[in-house]
Specification:
With about 325 residues, this protein is of the alpha/beta class. The chain has a single domain, classed as Thiamin diphosphate (ThDP)-binding fold, Pyr/PP domains (Rossmann fold), CATH 3.40.50. Helix content is about 45%, strand content about 10%. The strands form two sheets. A six-stranded parallel β-sheet has the order 2-1-3-4-8-7, with helices on both faces. Strand 7, helix 9 and strand 8 form a beta-alpha-beta unit. Helix 2 packs parallel to helix 9, helix 4 crosses helix 12 and helix 5 runs parallel beside helix 6. The longest helix is centred in the N-terminal third of the chain and has 27 residues. The radius of gyration is 19 Å and the shape is globular. The chain starts with 7 loop residues before the first helix and ends in a 17-residue tail after the last helix. About 50% of the residues are buried. The structure holds thiamine diphosphate. The site of thiamine diphosphate has 15 residues, from strand 3 and strand 5.
Length: about 325
């Protein structure tokens, strides 16, 4: 398939980042199934890596992103600390949320990953508030919120878009439209007329709907949106069509146990964002296939080291149970 023309070294870097995320999630899925060490629910983004990587490649470290339950890919793409994430999934004290939050409550302020939350749509409003703060303080920073097609059905989605449009806030709304909310397909939940990005246009927000498995196209769209936000011409709305390969929550495949048929899943696996970008590069870059294999070895070893270190780390002490809560 055709790839947009971002600079080739950049596409190479984005391939490396996507491979890293794929390796981290695949290895975590394997050890999750084998061990009972991780007691957090996990929502993997395997198959959706291009949206996180393409958008984050257009951001500065000082820009801040917010996400929902399916947040590992964005956390890593923004530069979040791998051990902090893996230890958090293990409920350890050195986890990025001190072992209190699990996989749906990641945070890394130094990397510009503000927060994630499993309350559907919640972070859309928090990102809008962060963008308001950036604008009021005159800071050249952009807030980005990632959410699914299901979250666009929450009331807070509409309130936040309207508020951002009225105040022209530097926020990019990124909808990862993976076609399902749990096992409920988009076609059964939303009217056939119109689209999610069309609703954003209804609030006067410029919006684009693109192939979310084309990392170059994702990056180019994000770059334009982020530049406009930095110039005071925000907000922007980007809807990316993509697909998660595994079950909604958990490490397994869900072939034929939901409305998602094997044929449908396989047709999306054939559109793998990593394979597509590698195929595109390999016409002019004879080293890319070998480099991908090297990266895979390196990243799989890296995540195993992080898992071992997390498991050797202490759980939060009982006497610190209330640390970080309003009561303390
Ligand atoms: C306010 C709220 N309502 C319902 C849920 C239950 N819930 C968790 S994930 C989910 C589906 C989310 O679908 P989508 O936003 O498309 O994201 P995806 O899981 O497909 O990435 C629902 C309904 C929730 N967590 N919060």
């Amino acid at each position: 398939m055709k790839q947009r023309h971002s600079p080739l070294p950049l596409i190479r870097d984005m391939v490396r980042d996507m491979v890293r995320i794929r390796c981290v999630e695949e290895e975590l899925a394997t050890v999750y199934r084998e061990e009972q060490e991780m007691r957090t629910p996990v929502h993997f983004s395997i198959g959706q890596e291009a949206t996180a990587v393409g958008v984050c490649a257009a951001l500065r470290r000082t820009d801040v992103i917010y996400s929902g339950h399916r947040c590992h890919a964005q956390f890593l793409a923004k530069g979040g600390d791998l051990l902090g994430m893996v230890a958090e999934l293990h409920g350890r004290e050195n986890g990025c949320s001190a072992g209190r939050g699990g996989s749906v409550h990641l945070a890394d302020q130094a990397a510009g990953f503000g927060a994630s939350s499993a309350i559907l749509g919640e972070m859309i409003s928090v990102a809008t508030g962060a963008a308001w703060a950036f604008a009021r303080r005159g800071e050249s920073r952009v807030a980005v919120t990632f959410f699914g097609d299901g979250a666009s059905e929450e009331g807070v989605f509409h309130e936040s878009l309207n508020f951002a449009a009225v105040h022209r806030l530097p926020v990019v709304f990124v909808c990862e439209n993976n076609q399902y909310s749990l096992s409920s397909p988009l076609t059964a939940r939303q009217p056939s007329a119109g689209s999610i990005s069309g609703r954003a246009r209804g609030y006067g927000i410029p919006a684009r709907r693109l192939d979310g498995n084309d990392v170059g196209a994702v990056f180019e769209a994000a770059r334009e949106a982020v530049a406009d936000c930095r110039d005071g011409k925000g907000p922007w709305f980007l809807e990316f069509d993509t697909y998660r390969w595994r079950e909604h929550v958990g490490p397994d495949w869900d072939y034929d146990v939901s409305p998602r048929s094997k044929n449908e899943i396989d047709s999306w696996i054939a559109r793998c964002p990593i394979r597509r970008a590698v195929d595109f590069l390999s016409t002019s870059d004879s080293d890319i296939e070998a480099d991908v294999s090297d990266w895979e070895r390196t990243f799989r070893a890296e995540v195993h080291e992080a898992v071992a270190e997390a498991r050797a780390s202490p759980f939060p002490a009982v006497e610190h149970l209330l640390a970080g809560t309003y009561e303390s």
